[in-house]
Fold:
Amino acid sequence: MAQKVLIHGATGETGGDILDGLMADGSFEIAALVRPQSLQKPATKSLKSRGVKVVVSDLVNQDVEEIADLLAGYDTVISAVATTAQLDQLKLVDAAAKAGIKRFIPCGFTSVSPPGGVMTLIRTEKEKIHERIWYHHLPYTIIDSGTWYQISFPSLPSGKVDYAFMGDGNTIVADGNAPNLMVDKRDIGRLTARIIKDNRTLNKRVFLHADVLTQNEIWAIMERKSGEKIEAKHATHDELIAKMHTARAACTKSPSDPRLRFAAISAEYMVCKYVRQDNNPQNARYLGYIDTRELYPDFEPKTFSAFVDELLAGQAKKLYRDKFEFMQKKST
Amino acid sequence: MAQKVLIHGATGETGGDILDGLMADGSFEIAALVRPQSLQKPATKSLKSRGVKVVVSDLVNQDVEEIADLLAGYDTVISAVATTAQLDQLKLVDAAAKAGIKRFIPCGFTSVSPPGGVMTLIRTEKEKIHERIWYHHLPYTIIDSGTWYQISFPSLPSGKVDYAFMGDGNTIVADGNAPNLMVDKRDIGRLTARIIKDNRTLNKRVFLHADVLTQNEIWAIMERKSGEKIEAKHATHDELIAKMHTARAACTKSPSDPRLRFAAISAEYMVCKYVRQDNNPQNARYLGYIDTRELYPDFEPKTFSAFVDELLAGQAKKLYRDKFEFMQKKST
Structure:
């Protein structure tokens, strides 16, 4: 019998990749949890046209019993929601426990970092969800991933990759040699399909990645493939830390401003990846994660080099296209 | 070369067992971190007479650099401190990271429960210490244990075991069949000696126990060995939960009252052990712990039965003798 999977956030940036990965796998019976107000959106209609069952639920206004009734009969619930909607999962966890869900995948899907005040905007609320899972003894898998290729390349002098560029510029941190877990975001879906069929990952933290790359290595690949010379800005560790504190303070002052929130998240990521160097395989193991490269040695992840080929051919996807226009670099 | 171990809290109830276990092992070079104001106490003098090096440090008033200088050269730091002194460990962790300590054992040594609001008085502050450890990428082992035999036996009508009794009476919860991890507290020391020599436990959570026993099994052993019939009180799950909420509220209102604090801790333990049933091997594994029974199959833990023999022979130790007189049942 096919494993029945319900995805919360299937039309989002990560949820969409997960849906694609599960559909490509072909062995799942897939449904998507959709808010009543999203029923008429093109993204929801597109789900239906792809054969995904739409389950309508309003996590904010429905009570746990009602949500549990909707969840009953599913084996697995996967949550992939916006950073601002993390706490909506509390009720979803309560309902999943009540419905006897066999595996709950909370919204992880971020780079490796420790709980407790390092990634205050990205991880702190996710930890609240983990605690609720453990409170209920609910079977789970926490999945985190390397940084996406899609947000990790520098722009080129020609402007050729600006169509897909997002980020805060071509900044090399310190000597540019901090190693970071990296992955093509589309592989998150392909690997999630493996993970939820695997008993070894039950009640575990799992990290997935394709490569471990430094900024210098990324730059070198981009220069070699494009034939362009990239002008880099430089930042020291202290400058990044100062920038993070400033960005956090601004975000705290105006928490509903998405631009300030994004700036603070970016600044925390920079410190985490390049100053603290949390996002690497050694630290992932230290924090109790198991490695999909070891679990699935036959899995061939998309390489950064192959992604750059797509990018230079104009075939990469612009992320968060509709949501955060301010995040996109305008072509000049 | 002998592993150099520094114990913080070596004169305490758990720290004393750890010191005994490490000394019995014989392979360690042991020192104890002692506050200046405790230097003249009999317990400190006793440390010296047993050949333990005393390192004087004032965690409250010294800065991290000074403490790090004292810690330099030790391989392992073990912390076992009172529930009210948990946050003193923050500075100790900072100093251990600065001194390059190879393994830090934070004050765990409590029964298995999830982080996040179940054991608010026992575990919540311990989690802050874990987060600080991970913040520093400091190598660590978190050790938790089964409930001590020493606090888990009912009193007898004859009054024979009152000399060592502590707790809130002979209450059987629900049907009395909730299984709980249990251990002789002296084995915590013997097993800690194994754990800190074992690379498999580095950067892991470990739980130790000897038996898994229900209240009914404990009662049966006590009745069989004593020849006495034990009168039990009974409590339902709902009664225990209500009692916990009342005790927590009283403790929150008067946080410095040790009697109210002890009552609230006890009430949380009761709910955790008998209602939620967190303290068992399945849940320990679910929460990511590894089992010393599997790591050390040759280790022969003291059995509950053997402990009861000691207890009935008048040879058990009265715990927290000097500290909490209100916790001891007066012989009648």
Remarks:
- Chain B has a mean pLDDT of 94.
- The two ends of chain B are 54 Å apart (CA to CA).
- Residues 258-275 of chain B form the longest helix (18 residues).
